[in-house]
Amino acid sequence: MKLVKIGIIIWLSFFIIAGLIISVPDIQILKQSSRNLFYHVPMWFTMFVAFFSSFVYSVRYLNNPKPDFDHKAAAFTTVGILFGICGLFTGSLWARFTWGAWWTFAEPRMNLSAVALLILSAYFVLRSAFDDPEKRAKMAAVYNIFAVSTVPFLFYIIPRQLQSLHPGAEGNPAFSEITAPVLRLIFYPAILGFIALSFWIAQLIYRYLRIQDTIANQEI
Predict the structure, then answer these.
(1) What number is the average pLDDT over the span 121-127?
(2) What share of the chain is helix, strand, coil (3-state, %, to 5)?
(3) What's the total number of domains in the chain?
(4) CB–CB of 169/160 below 8 Å?
(5) Range of the structural domain that residue 155 is part of
């Protein structure tokens, strides 16, 4: 396991540094900011994987109410929100250099992404409202299934029906159409690296929650 963690650190470090020093093609409007492709988009991919994992564990908890499933659902939801915030931050940074503003309310993808993260953040507000562990876990699982179900609609389906400045929207080329092959050599491995990092972080949070649960049971 230690070798896996070392591998993740080396893998991510290499591609993060490579993304900063590699020669990138002169893409209209994006210019040097196209390097953000290596960081911004992988954040969203990693977030989707984390939320899907939390969804799976919430369903598993409802089918078999084991505390471990609840802890893992909470851990992956935490990681999903963390990477979602990173996605918003890197997106805002990109907007500043390409659209001239840190945030624009005329861009539905940015606004709906923020709404989705607020909906998912309410998962933890709900958890804090219950003292009984079993009731908390059950209600949290039900809400999490609902919250994660909104993700594809708020992040992808609805924004594609609205006018947008974002690449891939109507009238704007998708990144797949303007991304040079050399960028993909960094982009795809970066996605894998960040996803691996997310599972590592989720495992740490899960272990913390288990310890916290054990201490609470001992006090009772």
Answers:
(1) 95
(2) 80, 0, 20
(3) 1
(4) yes
(5) 2-219
> Does the structure show a pLDDT above 80 at 44?
yes
Contacts with 34 (C-beta within 8 Å, 6 or more apart), sequence order: 24, 25, 27, 183
For residue 128, the tally of other CB atoms under 10 A from its CB is 9
Q: What are the distances in angstroms from CA 40 to CA 86, 143, 190?
A: 8, 28, 10
CB atoms < 10 A from the CB of 31, how many?
A: 13
End-to-end C-alpha distance for the chain, whole angstroms: 34
Q: Residue 157 to residues 47, 162, 211: CA-CA distances in angstroms?
A: 17, 9, 40
**Long-range pairs for 96-102 at CB < 8 Å and ≥24 separation?**
97/33, 98/29, 98/30, 98/33, 99/165
Q: Give the three-state DSSP class for 56.
A: helix
Query: Does 106 score more than 90 pLDDT?
Result: no
Quick one: DSSP state of residue 100?
A: S
Cβ–Cβ contacts within 10 Å for residue 132, how many?
9
